[in-house]
Amino acid sequence: MNFIKRAYWSVTVRKGKSIILLVVLAVISVFVLTGLTIQTAAEESSILARQELGGDVTLTVDRQSLVENGVTERRKQAMFQTIPIDIEDAESLIDSEHVEGFNFYSATSAMTNDFTAIGAEEREESTIEDGQDQGSIMPGRMGNGSNADLDVQGVLYSDAATSFINGQSEIVEGEHLTADDAGKKVTMVEGNLASENGWSIGDEISVTSEETEESVTLEIKGIYSTSEEVPPQAERILSMNPYNSIYVPIEVANQLKGEEGIIDQAIYYINDPLNIDAFIEEAKSESTIDFDTFILNANDQLYQQMMGPIENVSSFSNKIVLLVTIAGSIILGLIVMMTIRERKYEMGVLLAIGEKRIKLVGQFIVEILIVAVLAMGLSLITGNYVADAVGNQLLEQELTATEESDEPQSFAKRRGMMGGMEAGGNIQNQDVQTIEEISIGVTAANIILMVGIGLLCIIVSTLVPVLSILRMNPKTILTNQD
Length: 482
Hints:
Elements: H1 3-13, H2 15-53, E1 55-61, H3 63-69, H4 72-80, E2 85-86, H5 87-91, E3 99-112, H6 120-130, E4 150-155, H7 162-165, E5 169-174, E6 186-190, H8 191-197, E7 204-209, E8 215-226, E9 245-248, H9 250-257, E10 262-263, E11 265-270, H10 276-286, E12 294-299, H11 301-342, H12 344-352, H13 357-401, H14 444-470, H15 474-479
Parallel strand pairs: 4-9, 6-8
Antiparallel strand pairs: 1-11, 1-12, 2-10, 3-4, 3-7, 3-11, 5-8, 7-8
Helix pairs in contact: 1-13, 2-11, 2-13, 2-14, 3-4, 11-13, 11-14, 13-14
């Protein structure tokens, strides 16, 4: 009878010990499979999170550096004025392999010509009552003059401005501004401002630059609505009223500034948050940008926020696999050691009649493998249920960490140029489009890894106690038999 047959008969005859071994191996297999499933879920969620969120880098003035290290004149400018960015410098970064989209921003303020800004009549009445004239009113939000009526946002894509990203604003009529509108005299206005002045799509409005007093006529391309709260200061500073915010192409904003070929800020959308550092290093080494004056600020907080719970779950799964492997090997080793102590006489007899030591080792390993096959089969049956539970838990953690938001149509060089955010603003507070479905389950790779870890536990737990006995000769084993 060969050692495989002996192993089979040993398992079937010793039913009690085989059942105990089956339970132990099944528990080990289920825990290992659970840990591996969690790892798979975490990796998949990480990839989806990176695809959903991406990351962006903002090119802007390094005010802190200028204040701390700049010359006196530069320090004053950094504290009280916007230092413009040469648009050619900003464009030098858009060809990076890490950039999938970008947007440039130029913000200013303007005066109304042939229409009334929201709150203008109330401000005039308040001014008359207070005995003040127009010249004493505080400066507008984005401009340098004292009578700013409008907040003017120069953008490439209006649908990706901060208020549209976070859901506070939405287009209600007409179309958003896009890169195709570059150089055109078009605008997008708020619904309340349009209603106040009886505007519709295609109408023309006239605004005046505070800087040059030049008038610009704009055609209304789109009308949007906003739910932003009106701050108390808007009673006197009309440009702070969100209803008085208009969107125009960058060239129009620069014309109102009396400038050309400059922007206030640039946003670069990185194809993977993991590539942000590489993009910044590439920009510093290859671009013509003066990084003593400007800085690239990484904005991957949303990605990090979403990845926090996922990374915690992944770390937990790694610990599960490690602890179960170690504990399982120890428990199996103890069970095998107890079994071998009871079967020392059997081993001595087999060695005495000429059975090879390697075959005795093989017999014990095969005995455990027979039970292990059944245990792993049971773990596969329950594995799908475990995978579903783990997947739902992982998804629930992600949903509690993020909130839903809609991606603007302009996002991605893979689907067209990207929009971004209003100059001077940020998108750190935007809601996140949550991952609504993750395909989680036991994969072939999980099964292979589980089998590999199981074999490792079996071999380690079997070889150590068996070899400790087999190193003795048959005579010693038989004479020491209790």
